[in-house]
């Protein structure tokens, strides 16, 4: 009997010490708050919104494993009676990817929409048999589809964060009204492109946590986004990061992607860039944009670009921007 009692005491002490050690590591941590299993299917980041204000809204998110994704949406939080998928290519719906981009089309101007993202894990993809795993979803979110005929427009612009993700919410908090139609990231949010996790941790997650579930953002590259081994994969995480034009309220916005500040032949680029031709292509496009009805009729025009002409030093990139874009800007001053 004594041996049995001694054994019970030892087991009790071992259990108590183990629990005590856990409590010592983190007294506030409970079993319910322990980390999720490493192999659990989860949403890595998202949703985050992108738009070009054509009565469309693109909803993007990332999962930690390949999946099939979709969005359920509607005009009230308890009636998400419409469903949308990623763009189909040659009859194939977007699937078997960690990255999701679903564009809601034909939205009504000024209307609030409610949505929820879904992902169904693809555990095995054989030629004639697809095996699904768990289906996961987020809470219901909402956004206002901006009426481009509105009388005014509000936006916030950030740039040169340089891999300091805490700066994003800090700077956004300085805007007390928070009534922006969009947030504009004007390049150099990173020092260079390393991998997917950098994009998630240093930009996407701070944006999602701060505003991007409800307010879209638009992004153009700076010279630092063109650098690094992941620079060629970088654009796929956004609806659009190049040159573009769109109208909101009385403003015609023109976005130019100014490329690198060094010459294409610089040794650091190892002969695999051609930003000169890319800027020439944009200048030709800009000439056509200037002659467009939307540009001519707009009471105000704003050109957004990372390297502004004339005031960015005498490196090759800024000089080339001045040569190509300044005459066009002066002409339409």
Write a compact overview of the structure shown.
The chain is of the alpha+beta class and 333 residues long.
What does this protein look like?
With 333 residues, this protein is an alpha+beta fold. The chain has helices at 2-25, 167-172, 196-212, 275-290, 293-297, 316-331, and strands at 43-50, 57-74, 82-85, 97-104, 112-126, 129-137, 141-144, 155-158, 182-185, 217-219, 244-248, 251-256, 300-305. Strands 1, 2, 3, 4, 5, 6 and 7 form a seven-stranded antiparallel beta sheet that branches. A three-stranded parallel beta sheet has the order 8-9-10. Strand 9, helix 3 and strand 10 (217-219) form a beta-alpha-beta unit. It is globular.
Tell me the layout of helices and strands.
Layout lengths: L1 H24 L17 E8 L6 E18 L7 E4 L11 E8 L7 E15 L2 E9 L3 E4 L10 E4 L8 H6 L9 E4 L10 H17 L4 E3 L24 E5 L2 E6 L18 H16 L2 H5 L2 E6 L10 H16 L2
Please, what is the average pLDDT? 89
> What's the number of extended β-strand segments?
13
Number of helices: 6
Task: Assign a percent range to the helix content.
Answer: 25-40%
β-strand percent reads 25-35%
Span between N and C termini? 98 Å
Specify the overall morphology.
globular
Sheet/helix structural class: alpha+beta
Q: Poorly predicted ranges (pLDDT <50, ≥5 residues)?
A: 1-35
Main β sheet profile: 7 strands, antiparallel
Radius of gyration: 25 Å
Oligomeric composition of the shown chains = single chain
State the order of secondary-structure elements, H for helix, E for strand.
Answer: HEEEEEEEEHEHEEEHHEH
